Amino acid sequence: MVAEPVHVRRLTDQEGYELQQIVRRGSTNSVRYRRSMMVLSSAGGNGVPVIAKLVQADEDTVRNVIHRFNEIGLACLDPRWAGGRPRLLSGDDGDYVVATATTRPARLGQPFTRWSIRKLAAYLRRVHGHVIKIGREALRCLLARRGITFQRTKTWKESPDPERDAKLDRIEEVLEHFPDRVFAFDEFGPLGIRPTAGSCWAEQSRPERHPATYHRTHGIRYFHGCWSVGDDTLWGVNRRKKGAANTLAALRSIRAARQDGAPIYVILDNLSAHRGDTIRR
């Protein structure tokens, strides 16, 4: 009796997207890349012999990957090969290492502001009650597996407006139902007024040169920009400062883009120059 051909089950949208991302971007992990190609090729209707030739692998290997994918999904892309000596660190030890690495050293009584791999490994070896002996490379690999990387501190802002969610719902509503009537307005700046390098014909290796030091006697400008969502068109003008009068002029230019008298919807922030009495009228 001839065995039935081996094929992967139907892929979900998320599985198909992740597999395509791995193949298109060329994963640095050759195992993940080759296994993703096996699964995608099988999903495309190719048989095991064709896939084996494509990825230069044994047919039994292809079958095993397909069977494994049908059982556990994308987890099969990262095989957990056994072998070697038993792990010296338990799961609780790993959790403790991660908790320590993500805690400011000053809170643990250390006289520095951030951990290095060397300092963290040395600290873990002398913690009273929970000594962990781990090398620098093993520590680096452990943090990488847990998704802990060395990053710069970021700042963030959040809107204090209590009606923020209601306003976002309103924006989404008009974008969905009236995209041709939606516009956005904002200012960009300050913009320094300074010379900009141009181009011209000149003798080879002898470009026209201008001194890099100059006096900025023209102040700054702000770009008042308007964007039509439906037309995907941006226009605007540079002005010396922000103000209700300049905002009103921009809104009038938006109204001029839709002269049929029907309602228009303008998205703008809570800057005081956007909320004058003249604008509200």
What's a concise summary of this model?
The protein is an alpha+beta fold. It has helices spanning 13-25, 30-43, 48-55, 59-72, 91-101, 117-125, 136-145, 164-177, 244-257, 277-280; strands at residues 182-192, 220-228, 233-239, 265-267.
Instruction: Write down the overall mean pLDDT.
Output: 86
| Percent helix range | 25-40%
- Radius of gyration (CA) equals 31 Å
**Through-space gap between termini:** 84 Å
The topology string of helices and strands comes to HHHHHHHHEEEHEH
User: By CATH's scheme, which homologous superfamily of the largest domain applies?
Assistant: Ribonuclease H-like superfamily/Ribonuclease H
Strand order of the largest sheet: 3-2-1-4
* Strand element count: 4
Poorly predicted runs are none
At the first level of CATH, the class of the largest domain is Alpha Beta
**Which architecture of the largest domain would the CATH scheme give at its second level?**
2-Layer Sandwich
Protein name: IS630 family transposase
Pfam family, one: HTH_32
Description:
Helices cover 40% and strands 11% of the residues. The protein has a four-stranded mixed sheet. It is extended and about 75 Å long. The chain folds into three domains: 13-77; 91-145; 164-191 and 218-280, 2-Layer Sandwich (Nucleotidyltransferase, domain 5), CATH 3.30.420. The chain is of the alpha+beta class. The chain is built from ten helices and four strands. A hairpin with a 4-residue loop joins strand 2 (220-228) and strand 3 (233-239).
